[in-house]
Specification:
The chain has 470 residues and is α/β, with parallel strands linked by helices. It has helices at 6-24, 33-43, 55-69, 107-111, 136-140, 152-156, 182-186, 198-207, 230-240, 248-265, 278-287, 301-313, 327-331, 344-353, 371-374, 381-389, 404-413, 444-455; strands at residues 79-81, 94-96, 117-119, 124-126, 146-148, 162-164, 170-172, 192-194, 212-216, 244-247, 271-273, 318-323, 340-343, 396-402, 422-428. The protein is globular.
């Protein structure tokens, strides 16, 4: 598992406390602010402040985290900012460094449209009450002595949804947000977090009003340590109270065949891109709506697996997807196939609350899924699977892209592909594919190797169809 930072440890402690608390309450109990305050005091006990100005502010922030973990949220937004926690980043976007030479020309001062720069004690000084952060001074300095400081949350957002308000606190434009969770994973103060259905899942498991089926992402391999296989996780989930555990890879096998059929049916269009990554699909629809028609019409493996389960049980079933992806929480609301979503971190908290160690569980059988379906979890897996199902006589140029900005730029590049070979672009918002998701517990390269080991050997007869692109 990834070495945990202070923020990660705090987040996981909050989830574990809430999970244990959820199991201790009556089924019809509704969380309230007093519960959040009590748990916050347990998380931040009496003593000196460790991270903030005082222990009371630390507890207030911990209390907000607890409320979010309890499912107490405003609106339907998946990613949210805790305002009180967002106060540690530099307030000034442009800073004069020691590289300032106090040159005679003073191009920084002369270029500033707001006259916000003066020279004090032989060094340029920026009056931030007048500065409009246009950046002209930084560009005009011949010594590059003025640097731009971009907040990690702003820098990480691939669609520019994160900005700063008049109080210099992060705000998220929900019209632009694609719920990718990149800002959640990089904020060094833990001020941005994702909403949770942890309490609802636990209550449903305890109530047992109808069958509950877990849909587990193939990226689960390697997430809970080198000795814990997906078979151990299946056994642990059954011990937890799920009636059945289905691999999302089952849906991936179906999706691969569907996308291969789409390519053959619309071969004259010369371009198609994958749709299994919800963050990428949302980004295309919001950032490149004119390209939305080249997205595959297939649902994601998660939703296809959920659809199969709903058909089997006749809708009288609760489906819970478990994976490393925050965007899946948003995608679940796009249809009725998946009822709730847990991240691997949230699942780990539930295991801990019930004192279940997956490595101690007897591995359960997992069959009926091809290696290709399981390899959807790592970059290149989708196109490998689609290529396998294509007719041998089709000439296909396959592009594999990681990182959302790279994905959008690649799609733009091939938008005018009207001749030559058909191009299929596999796009993954996260580096490394799903194994690099913001709520993954293991490093992407380690998880990718675990996925490949779990998947087993694949038929490589169609590898010549592929060409890779970073």
């Amino acid at each position: 598992m990834n070495p945990a930072s202070e923020i990660t440890r705090l987040r996981r402690e909050v989830l574990s406390k809430v999970a244990r608390w959820a199991y201790s309450k009556p089924l019809d109990y509704q969380p309230n602010n007093d519960d959040a305050e009590k748990l916050a005091k347990e998380i931040i006990p009496d003593g000196p402040a460790r991270y903030r100005c005082c222990i009371y502010k630390e507890r207030a922030i911990a209390g907000e985290r607890v409320k979010i973990a309890m499912g107490k949220k405003t609106g339907d937004h998946i990613v949210t900012v805790i305002p009180d926690a967002c106060n540690g980043c530099s307030l000034n976007k442009y800073v004069v460094t020691d590289a300032c030479q106090n040159c005679v020309a003073h191009p920084c001062r002369n270029s500033c449209p707001k006259k916000a720069i003066s020279v004090i004690h032989n060094r340029a000084f920026i009056d931030n009450s007048s500065c409009v952060e246009c950046g002209i001074c930084a560009r005009s300095c011949p010594y590059h002595a003025i640097v731009e400081i971009t907040r990690p949350c702003e820098r990480s957002c691939p669609v520019g949804a994160v900005t700063v308000d008049e109080n210099r606190r992060a705000v998220i434009d929900m019209e632009k947000c694609i719920s990718c969770g990149m800002c959640v994973s990089v904020c060094p103060f833990g001020a941005i977090t994702d909403t949770s259905q942890l309490y609802d899942v636990i209550r449903s498991l305890r109530a047992k009003e109808q069958p509950m089926v877990a849909v587990v992402a193939p990226s689960v391999a390697g997430q809970f340590g080198p000795k814990v296989t997906p078979r151990h996780i299946k056994s642990a989930l059954l011990t937890l109270g799920f009636d059945e555990v289905v691999e999302a890879a089952y849906g991936a096998d179906i999706v691969a065949k569907q996308e291969a059929e789409e390519i053959e049916e619309h071969y004259d269009k010369k371009l198609m891109t994958s749709s299994c990554c919800p963050a990428y699909a949302s980004a295309v629809q919001k950032e490149l709506p004119q390209m939305a028609d080249v997205l595959s019409n297939s649902l994601s493996p998660m939703r296809v697996a959920g659809q199969v389960i709903k058909d089997k049980y006749g809708e009288k079933v609760t489906t819970v997807f478990i994976g490393p992806c925050i965007a899946k929480k948003a995608e679940a609301a796009w249809g009725d196939e998946i009822d709730m979503v847990l991240t691997f971190e949230e699942l780990a908290a539930v295991f801990e609350a019930r004192d279940i160690n997956p490595s101690d569980c007897i591995p359960a059988e997992m069959e009926g899924v091809s290696p290709y379906g399981r390899l959807f979890a790592r970059a290149g897996g989708v196109s490998d699977a689609v290529a396998y199902h294509l007719s041998d006589d089709l000439e296909i140029n396959i592009i594999q892209v990681q990182g959302l900005k790279n994905c959008l730029n690649t799609l733009k590049k091939y938008s005018k592909n009207t001749g030559g070979k058909f191009t299929f672009i596999e796009c993954m918002a996260c580096d490394g594919g799903c194994v690099g998701g913001p709520s993954a517990l293991a490093k992407a390269p380690v998880a990718a190797r675990a996925v490949e080991k779990f998947a087993g050997k694949v038929d490589t007869k169609k590898k010549e169809k592929q060409s890779n692109s970073a």
